[in-house]
Amino acid sequence: MLTYEFVQRALLVSTVTAVTAGLLSCWLVLIGWSLMGDAVSHAVLPGVVISYIVGWPFAIGALIAALIAVALVGTVGERTTLKGDTAIGVVFTALFALGLVLVSVTPAGTNLQEILFGNLLGISRDALVQVLLFGAIALVVMLVLRRNITVWAFDPAHARAVGVPTGLIRGAVMVCLALVVVAAMQAVGVILVVAMLITPGATAYLLTRRINRMLVIAPLVAWVSSVAGITLSYRYDVSAGGTIVLFQAGLFVLAYLFAPREGLVTAPLLKRRRRSRHPLPTLPDAAPADAGTSTPRS
């Protein structure tokens, strides 16, 4: 399998996507931006269709649409009293609906279907260059700002108090989100991008409470799932993107069942062991009221 060039390209693309999406997913889970990842991944659809119509590379239109979506969400959230999830829901549904309308009036093309559902084993060299470029930019930004992003993710008020430019960090995370979405959609398609952005971080969160370990476990989960998905897709002729996401979901289920602290199976066993090692002290039986004394009778 590894002797074929298209498999080598698929492994390279999946590795870049796994590392960048896995790192970003840790902070998205901590911040509570799962819906933001879903919004940006769907909001790129109109940009992709417009790029297809005018003959541009898909990545250009997708990146422009993602940045517009991020800017609109930030503007609506800051200039109104609406909550963040409401602003996200309004913006991403509107942009996704616009994409559906554009698709309905555009002659059907295989390329659009590949963008929607992914075609990892058929990725072109141009798409490979785009993934490497966007993934490298996002990776460099996240590594340079990782400490500030972590502080802001845990406690924005404390981050402002210690001098972290929270506005700049928020904007940098959103730009990284747009870049990772554009890179990941080349691998698994627009519809399944959100799984790449959430599942690895959620799995790592169940396995550890230390951010440094999360930043290692999440990319590892994403990469193992990508390699396994490509292998299964090659052997059984099934969707590579769908197989990757299903494998990630399987790893999440294992973590949900057998995680050391929160596992559905292991957590009760751990509690029982702790109780057996450190049993609660038992109080002595209460002595009878007349033991050792006699009350005089009147």
UniProtKB/TrEMBL annotation:
Gene Ontology biological-process annotations: cellular response to iron ion; response to zinc ion; transmembrane transport
Cited InterPro entries: ABC_BtuC-like, ABC_TroCD
Q: Where is the protein situated, by its record's location annotation?
A: Cell membrane; Membrane
Task: Provide the residue span(s) of the region labelled Disordered.
Answer: 278-298
Low complexity bias: where? 279-291
Q: Which domain of life is it from?
A: Bacteria
Q: Which residues cross the membrane?
A: 12-36, 48-74, 86-107, 127-145, 157-181, 187-207, 214-234, 240-259
User: Which UniProt keyword terms apply here?
Assistant: Membrane, Transmembrane, Transmembrane helix, Transport
Q: How does it sit in the membrane?
A: Multi-pass membrane protein
Output the Gene Ontology cellular-component terms. ATP-binding cassette (ABC) transporter complex
What's this protein's family per the entry?
Answer: Belongs to the ABC-3 integral membrane protein family.
Its recorded name reads ABC-type Mn2+/Zn2+ transport systems, permease components
